[in-house]
């Protein structure tokens, strides 16, 4: 079901990186009646599956995100393997892909050995199921969202995770709040307080502290791009360098193209990832040419992956992401 209503698109654009801002603020920003914004939000939620995701800066929690791309050796137990991955407490994202890999997942770990533990746990349950596997840790992840909904807007902003940030102190209640925020469809703090068995004043105070400390960077509006007549792609860029100049050049490409949804710095088989939402795969040739020409004095290898659909997506899938509470 394609989302064509101009009001729905305007509201979605307005809450792109501010998914939990009051309806009155959105109405004032768009210069429309409050009840129309209320109707639009309700329609986006009920008809198009709009959800509000807290964007959590894992670096503030001492957590690193690893991207794992792989294919499966056999389809016989595919659904069981996928279900096991979706239930794993460290899997923040799992998606079906087309291209060199069949599946991809984002693992949230505090130690690199936990990546090996995850892979081993799947093999212990299902045998040697992985093929064509590539793994890379991410230094930064910057989310720009769907700027193509209002490309004329000059100030869009972004939400950023950085492994370079200094961790802050959190406790078990903070972790419960983060897990519930990231996985509950409810946007109300009152219902979240009830779900975790804490008082409303305590939860609202903790949420504000997590926001002020930069653990919660903001709240993004999540919706299947197919409702916007778009397909999601990811370009993996290998240059043999992680220089500041290369980072600045590729980030500039993302800044200048409203079709780009995210930008990642990595260490591993590739140094950069750029996410795209495109109306047609034909747009990829020009995008690839722009990326390849970014570093005129260096060979740039670009690999394109089509993201068919997200199977699960959470910025904090479980409080067990952090097995040892930060004490400083």
Structural notes for this entry:
The chain has 328 residues and is an alpha+beta fold. Helices cover 34% and strands 27% of the residues. It has ten helices and eleven strands. The chain has helices at residues 6-14, 23-30, 34-48, 78-87, 113-126, 172-183, 189-196, 200-212, 244-256, 283-292, and strands spanning 51-56, 64-72, 91-98, 103-109, 130-143, 159-162, 216-222, 231-238, 260-266, 272-278, 301-313. Strands 2-4-3-11-8-10-9-5 form an eight-stranded antiparallel barrel, surrounded by four helices. β3 and β4 (103-109) form a beta hairpin. The longest helix is centred in the first third of the chain and has 15 residues, at 34-48. It is globular and about 50 Å long. It starts with 5 loop residues before the first helix and ends in a 15-residue tail after the last strand. The model is unreliable at 324-328 (pLDDT under 50).
- The low-confidence runs, each spanning 5 or more residues with pLDDT under 50, are 324-328
Helix vs. strand class: alpha+beta
Mean pLDDT: 92
The total count of strands amounts to: 11
What share of residues is helical?
Answer: 25-40%
The general outline is globular
Largest sheet: 8 strands, antiparallel, barrel
How many helices? The count is 10
Question: How is the largest sheet built, in terms of strand order?
Answer: 2-4-3-11-8-10-9-5
Rounded to the nearest angstrom, the distance between the terminal CA atoms is 49 Å
Integer-rounded radius of gyration: 20 Å
Helix and strand succession?
HHHEEHEEHEEHHHEEHEEHE
Strand content: 25-35%
């Amino acid at each position: 079901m394609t989302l064509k209503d101009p009001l729905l698109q305007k509201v979605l654009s307005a809450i792109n990186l501010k998914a939990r801002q009051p309806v009155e603020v959105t109405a004032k920003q768009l210069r429309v009646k409050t009840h129309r914004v209320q109707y639009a939000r309700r329609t986006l939620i009920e008809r198009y599956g709009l959800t509000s995701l807290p964007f959590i800066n894992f670096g503030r929690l001492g957590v690193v995100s690893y991207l794992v791309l792989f294919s499966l050796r056999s389809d016989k137990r595919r659904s069981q393997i996928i279900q096991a991955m979706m239930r794993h407490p460290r899997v923040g994202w799992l998606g079906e892909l087309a291209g060199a890999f069949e599946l991809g997942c984002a693992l949230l770990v505090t130690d690199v050995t936990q990546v090996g533990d995850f892979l081993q746990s799947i093999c212990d349950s299902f045998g040697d199921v992985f093929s064509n596997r590539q793994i890379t840790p991410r230094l930064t992840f910057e989310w720009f969202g769907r700027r193509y909904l209002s490309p004329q807007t000059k100030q869009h902003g972004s939400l950023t995770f950085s492994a370079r940030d200094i961790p802050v102190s959190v406790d078990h209640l903070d972790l419960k709040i983060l897990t519930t925020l990231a996985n509950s469809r409810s946007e109300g703090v009152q219902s979240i307080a009830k779900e975790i068995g804490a008082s409303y004043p305590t939860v609202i105070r903790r949420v504000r502290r997590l926001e002020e400390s930069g653990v919660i960077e903001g709240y993004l509006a999540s919706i299947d791009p197919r409702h916007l007549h778009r397909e999601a792609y990811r370009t993996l860029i290998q240059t043999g360098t992680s220089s500041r100049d290369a980072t600045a050049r590729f980030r500039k490409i993302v800044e200048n193209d409203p079709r780009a949804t995210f930008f990642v710095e990595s260490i591993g088989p590739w140094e950069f990832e750029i996410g795209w939402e495109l109306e047609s795969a034909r747009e990829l040739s020009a995008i690839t040419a722009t990326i390849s020409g970014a570093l005129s004095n260096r060979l740039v290898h670009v690999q394109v992956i089509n993201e068919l659909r997200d199977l699960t997506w959470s910025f904090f899938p479980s409080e067990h992401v952090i097995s040892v509470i930060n004490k400083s």
